[in-house]
Amino acid sequence: MRPELKRFGAGQNPVVVVDGFSGAVDDIVNLAAALAPFPAIEGNYYPGLRRVITGADGPANAYVEQSCERLAPFIGGAFDVDGFDLIEASFSMVTTAPSTLTPPQQAPHFDSTDPKHYAVLHYLNVPNGSGTAFYRQRSTGIERVTEANAATFVETAQAEAAELPANSGYIHGSDRFFEQIGAVEAVPDRLIVYRGSLLHSGIIPPGMDFSADPRAGRLTANIFVRGH
User: Fold this and answer.
1) Of 78, 75, 122, which is closest to residue 218 (Cα–Cα)?
2) CA-CA distance, 9 to 142, in Å (whole number)?
3) Is the pTM of this model over 0.90?
4) Could you write out the DSSP letters of every residue in the chain?
5) Distance in angstroms (rounded) separating the CA atoms of residues 227 and 83
6) Could you report the per-residue pLDDT of 91-118, keeping only the tens digit for each?
7) Residue 121 near residue 222 (C-beta atoms within 8 A)
8) Closest CA to 210 of 114, 94, 92
9) What's the pLDDT tens digit per position in 54-97?
10) Residues 123-177: tens digit of each pLDDT
11) What total of structural domains would you count in the chain?
12) Residue 90 maps to which CATH number?
């Protein structure tokens, strides 16, 4: 494993990048394929399918537990926490075509206002040109959404979303409402960790295969933890 600590934006927000995280990415893709087809998500902004991993999922659950054990020193060092608890883990696939996105799916988002809520993203089967980008809301300067600024961010984002042209698709780089402050390229078996309050969006390249097959589409493992 090759860890690196990046910092993005005016807030110098830490993002941990670990290459060669598992050394067994093909085996993990096979674990995901064994759980397919993934269910559709209701009431969620994620533009695709997500299969939550539970204790009943045997090898897939063991992969999550082993990943959390390997992650401990990286999360502790980057975010100054003594430990963390698993909130949820899943295999996820981006399957929504750009022309059918809802307005919130066309803009960067956050996962939680909790400063100790961390998102772990393990790239498994990913196309060239894919990745994860991080953003600042131009009109407010918000990079991380907190309890104190959440209402301002949401109200502003909703008003700005109404001005987006129809079928504008996934955000690529900066636009008139959001400035990209950093990005990490998706590489198979690369894992990244960042605060869930940090504004972010998947980088979805033009012409990407939106297949629901874990061996063909954009497959990631998404793990959420809370530090203590």
Assistant:
1) 122
2) 10
3) yes
4) -EEEEEEETTTTEEEEEEETSSS-HHHHHHHHHHHPSPPB-SS---SEEEEE--GGGTHHHHHHHHHHHHHHHHHHHHHT-S-EEEEEEEEEEE---GGG--GGGGS-B-S-S-TTEEEEEEEEE--TT-EEEEEEETTT--SB--TTTHHHHHHHHHHHHTTSPTT--S--S--SSEEEEEEEE--TT-EEEEETTB-EEEE--TT----S-TTTSEEEEEEEEEE-
5) 6
6) 999 999 999 998 889 999 999 999 999 9
7) yes
8) 94
9) 999 999 999 999 999 999 999 999 999 999 999 999 999 999 99
10) 999 999 999 999 999 999 999 999 999 999 999 999 998 888 877 899 999 999 9
11) 1
12) 2.60.120.620
Closest listed residue to residue 59, CA positions, set 38, 34, 36: 34
Q: For residue 8, what are its two tokens?
A: 């993005």
Pairing of strands 131-137, 218-227: unpaired
Hunting for tokens 């050394």 — which residue is that? Answer: 23
pLDDT for the residue 168: 86
- Range of 84's domain? 2-227
Phi then psi for residue 180, to 5 deg, are -75, 125
Is the pLDDT reported for residue 41 higher than 90?
Answer: no
Q: Which residues contact 40 (CB under 8 A, 6 or more apart)?
A: 49
**C-alpha span between 23 and 145 (Å, rounded):** 34
* Nearest C-alpha neighbor of 203 from the set 131, 122, 103: 131
